[in-house]
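*** C-alpha cells ***
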Amino acid sequence: MPVEISLSEIPGLVGEEIGLSSWITVDQTMIDAFAGATNDHQFIHVDPVRAAAETSFGGTIAHGFLTLSLLSAMNYDCLPKIREQTMGINYGFDKIRFMSPVRCDKRIRGHFVLSEARFRGAGMVMTTYDVSIEIEGEKKPALTATWITIVQFDPKDRPEGV
C-alpha cells in the first residue's frame, strides 16, 4: 500500500486490506499506566503474582480497552495518508468484540480492511474499517471491530462523480 493516496483512489480500495501495522509489545509498564489513567486496578491486570496463581492466564493481561485504544497508534503507523485531508475525526464503532486476552509481554498488530467509503456533504468522506488485532503466535485475534472515521477536506478537492 502506498504511503499516500488521493481522495479519488478511496472508492477503489473498498474491500481491500489497506493497512497492517507494526508490532507493539504490551508490557506491564504499559498495562500499569493504563490502569492508572482509567482507575481500573483489577488484579488480573496489575498483580502478576496473584494473576498467575488465581487465573488461567499465567500472569497479567491487558485491559480490553487498552488493546482497543492502541488502534489509534496502529492507524497512524500503517494507513495511507490522504493528500487532501484537512482533518480526521473518530466517529465511533458499530461493533467491538474482545475475542482473546492479550497476555503481558505479547506483541500485537492491527489489520485494517476498508469496508465502506461514502462521500457526504461537500467536504467529507465517511470511512468504515473492519479491524482486527492479531496476537503474535496465536490463531484467535485479541479483538475485532467495525470502526467509523470521517475524513474532512476542502470541498474544491472533492473528486468528480462521487
Remarks:
- The two ends are 23 Å apart (CA to CA).
